[in-house]
């Protein structure tokens, strides 16, 4: 993360207008404290810079994750004395409340709902519930092959549907967000090495993509944003495709020599 931020500095200084450079400098401070989601929420007004021009916009999701990593262990320390059943019950209530707030907020407070932890918490808690479920399972208890095949394929189809059908007009993270998160959950739970999906995701290509995925996530938005700063018009699909390949190349380098 800090390598990417450092690489962005000279290009921001060369290519950004003073106002944009000031906002970029502020984002560097917020990113360093894992609170950039709060900054971008505060900057989401009508007259603010277009989000496509912010090189570190994507770090909002990293900030949400880090805030969760700080809050959740404290919750466990305080609640562990009550036992796992109570903890799970409390978390289910919190997840339902978070999802309900996300559904309401997607229509009435879309910026806060998109960027802030309370309306994203239910998505993160999906992973917690999967963890509790797996730990509670008996070691010899397995899913039938047919059920595993079917549910893991459904998981892939749900994610594919979200990728192809959702667009900027889709309220998010509303109930619509259940589609990709449930898809991911089904894959985590049921895509074993014995299933078609498990074998596909275990291939060298997908494993390689997984290894560089975090670095690719870090690189893609700065490349797209700076390209837009340098272009009079919106970059073409071909240019964005080239930038995507460049992001993957940079991702490999940073994964190999930094991660």
In short:
The protein has helices spanning 2-15, 18-32, 36-42, 59-79, 84-108, 110-115, 121-136, 145-165, 178-190, 196-201, 204-230, 237-257.
Structure description:
The protein has 259 residues and is mostly helical. The chain contains twelve helices and no strands. It has helices at 2-15, 18-32, 36-42, 59-79, 84-108, 110-115, 121-136, 145-165, 178-190, 196-201, 204-230, 237-257.
Largest sheet properties: none
Helix segment tally: 12
Number of E-state strands: 0
Query: What percent of the residues sit in helical stretches (DSSP H or I)?
Result: over 70%
Q: Which blocks of ≥5 consecutive residues have pLDDT under 50?
A: none
How much of the residues is beta strand, in percent? Answer: under 5%
The rough form would be described as globular
Overall pLDDT level: 93
SSE order, as H and E?
HHHHHHHHHHHH
Q: What is the CA-atom radius of gyration, in angstroms?
A: 20 Å
How far apart are the termini? 10 Å
Helix/strand-derived class?
mainly alpha
How are the secondary structure elements laid out?
Blueprint: H1 2-15, H2 18-32, H3 36-42, H4 59-79, H5 84-108, H6 110-115, H7 121-136, H8 145-165, H9 178-190, H10 196-201, H11 204-230, H12 237-257
Helix pairs in contact: 1-2, 1-11, 2-3, 3-4, 5-7, 7-9, 8-9, 11-12
């Amino acid at each position: 993360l800090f390598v990417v931020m450092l690489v962005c500095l000279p290009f921001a200084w060369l290519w950004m207008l003073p106002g944009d450079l000031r906002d970029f400098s502020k984002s560097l401070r917020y990113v360093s404290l894992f609170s950039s989601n709060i900054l971008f929420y505060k900057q989401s007004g009508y007259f603010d810079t277009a989000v496509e021009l912010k090189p570190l916009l994507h770090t909002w999701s990293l900030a949400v994750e880090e805030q969760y990593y700080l809050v959740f262990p404290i919750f466990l320390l305080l609640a562990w004395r009550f036992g796992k059943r109570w903890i799970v019950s409390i978390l289910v209530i919190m997840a339902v409340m978070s999802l309900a707030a996300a559904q309401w907020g997607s229509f009435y407070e879309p910026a806060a709902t998109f960027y802030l932890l309370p309306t994203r918490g239910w998505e993160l808690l999906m992973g917690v519930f999967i963890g509790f479920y797996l730990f509670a399972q008996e070691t010899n208890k397995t899913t039938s092959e047919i059920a595993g095949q079917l549910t893991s394929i459904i998981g892939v189809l749900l994610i594919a549907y979200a990728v192809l059908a959702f667009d900027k007009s889709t309220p998010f993270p509303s109930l619509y967000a259940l589609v990709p998160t449930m898809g991911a959950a089904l894959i985590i739970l049921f895509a074993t090495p014995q299933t078609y999906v498990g074998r596909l995701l275990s291939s060298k290509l997908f494993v390689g993509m997984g290894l560089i995925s975090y670095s690719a996530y870090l690189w893609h938005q700065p490349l797209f944003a700076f390209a837009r700063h340098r272009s009079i018009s919106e970059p073409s699909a071909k240019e964005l495709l080239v930038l995507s390949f460049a992001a993957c190349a940079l991702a490999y380098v940073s994964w190999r020599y930094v991660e």
